[in-house]
Amino acid sequence: MKKKFLTLFFGLSSLVALAGPPDEGMFPMSELKRLNLQAKGMQLTPEQLFSTEGVSLVQALVRVGGCTGSFVSPEGLIITNHHCAFGAVAAASSVENDYISKGFLAKTRELEIPAAGLTVRITTSYEDVSAEVLAAVKDIKEPAARLAGIRQAMRSIEARAKKAQPNLAHEVSEMFTGRSYVLFHYQTIQDIRMVYVPPRNIGEFGGESDNWVWPRHNGDFAFVRAYVAPDGSGAAYSKDNVPFKPANHLKVNPNGVQEDDFVFIMGYPGRTFRHYPAAYLEYQRDYLLPYTSQTFDWLIDYMKNLGKADQAKEIALASSAKGLANVTKNYKGKMQGMRRIGLVEQKRAEEKAMMNWVAANGERQQRFGKVLPTLDSLYGEMKADATQNLWLNYLLRNSAAMRIGVLTADARLAIEMAPADKKDSVQTEILKRLRTGIERAYGDYDASLDRDFMAKMLLQANGWPTNNQLASLNKIVGKKAADAQIDRFLNQLFSKTLLFDQKALLAAFDKNPAKFLKQKGDFWMLSTELQQLQSLLSLRDQKINGALSQWLPEFLEMKLAMQPGDFVPDANSTLRLTFGNVRGYEPEDGVYQAPFTTVGGLVAKGEKSGDYEINQELVAAYEAGNIEKYMKPSLKDVPVGLLYNMDTTGGNSGSPVMNAKGELIGVNFDRAYTATINDFAWNEAYSRSIGVDIRFVLFVVDKVAKADFLLQEMKVQ
């Protein structure tokens, strides 16, 4: 695979103009003038796309939670993905009002309800602060201290910006590890309300069976509205708030696009790791990806079984199960993709060539000779801790009881270590934080899930090599069968403690916090040992990450020196642009995938239940005819999904897919299975992203939801 390194954002070598179409790219706003997008089909100027001086397209773009969205009316109406609003829909649902299954429609503004957990951010400007961050650590050599110094400098810059502009949010983002830092300024809106979310059998038609694959036939879209206080400030929910009036909003183009049309996306892609060495990819392939996938598979199956017997539990756990399923299938795709293209082997071959190039010159040997050996060593340390690190991370993330135990052990230790003259004030503050931690630990709590997950994880730890085993767990198990002894321990814990009753546990804590801290027994002994393990692993992580912040920039410098060219920094949830064409592809020999799917295909795929349960109102609307205005003429049908060769990743969910004029023609929501590897590598041959065609969105809003008022608000004729 030919690699072309695109323009570096801030803080590295001289910038070089791009000479031709990119092999890949999630471009920062600073690079728009260098891309010569007009030569590739764009009809907007860089200033029309992004400007801090006047109105530009970027003011129609928003970050919605961990996704992207766009304003589509002057009254704060936002379109994003169904799956991006799913958590809010689940939170608002009950057995009586099952918005997950039936969908939600507010026919008037007064009926719009809070979208719990969703906030909106609009990028207003940015500035390079690399020099200031790096100056703060120029004399610090110890890796962990240097990393801490960088983080402190970033927080200090954010605090200063907040003092200067208290009405905005400010965030320093690391563009290149240990080398390049940018301060972004955001307008934040807290009051987000649901307007229209289609039923699950439209918004998630195909479910996990079709997730991360093409062809797709789901209407993964939702409408929410942003509200602000009457003075325009981004206040929390209040009945007195008014719809936000954005400086710009997207025009909806109801005619859509055709195959090979130029399209582009602006959004907030999450993390990518394309500028990382082979050793890091080995860690992902051999440890993080398989362990996470296996753990999440177990949790998903367990949650599904709970939901089968109890609809209330099914609703309560729906958002968690959906998120886990999305990740585990993505990770399986990444592992398959790495094997398919031999990515680690490619990286190793590149690095061997680098080392040969370094060895051929004395000056280069002195400058870069230690870079790759040091990185291999650091990631070797990471791999050595991987089993315990991943196990502990997922145990504490998914077991409220174990998390409370470790938080308690941590609080007890902090109080014991406090200076005598400050012990009382320290204890008060620590106990306050502990109580908050206990409250947050429960979430959508299910005691049986907690108990059985603990059993799975403790049995797993019992099988660790002797030098890694937990002394407290050995005491619990003794010399008898581990599974039986762990079951005995957990049955006793569930029946004789308050850990699985949040209300009773908090009451006991409030009655006598000091006594709560001094609890004894096998569980608390295990909690103390896990707290000690967590502290040890955390110190090692700080050391490794601190060293990586020094050596990864050297790795990039070595690549630049060997093969002068341009870089685009890895995505990091900051605003980016990617462009390409509506285009099909051949994922495997002899199999061509066309770039559009249709409602006719959806109906043919539909069944009465399961992932392909079909929405009968949609079928009736389709069979009633009068759909010409939503049809793709060459197909004589209403398009549902569209495929394009743009460079996207997580966080681009909900991003507007726009035509050359900047008009909305679709909403991005996924990638094809072969493109799950995008986080690590991108190639036009196998990387395809998926969106819902705007014509299907309009068809559903009009013919299924009967929400013509939304069409009128968006000025769609």
Commentary on this structure:
The chain contains 25 helices and 21 strands. A hairpin with a 2-residue loop joins strand 15 and strand 16. It has 717 residues and is an alpha+beta fold. The strands form three sheets. Strands 2, 3, 4, 5, 6, 7, 8, 9, 10, 11 and 12 form an eleven-stranded antiparallel beta sheet that branches. Strands 1-14-13-19-20-21-18-17 form an eight-stranded antiparallel beta sheet. The chain has a two-stranded antiparallel ribbon with strand order 15-16. Mean pLDDT is 91; it is low at 1-23. The longest helix is centred in the C-terminal third of the chain and has 41 residues, at 522-562.
Q: Say how many strands there are.
A: 21
Terminal Cα separation, in Å? 46 Å
Q: Helix proportion of residues, in percent?
A: 40-55%
Structural class: alpha+beta
Shape: globular
Tell me about the largest β-sheet.
11 strands, antiparallel
What is the residue-averaged pLDDT?
91
Instruction: Supply Rg.
Output: 27 Å
Runs in which pLDDT lies below 50 for 5 or more consecutive residues are 1-23
Query: Strand-residue fraction?
Result: 5-15%
Number of helices: 25
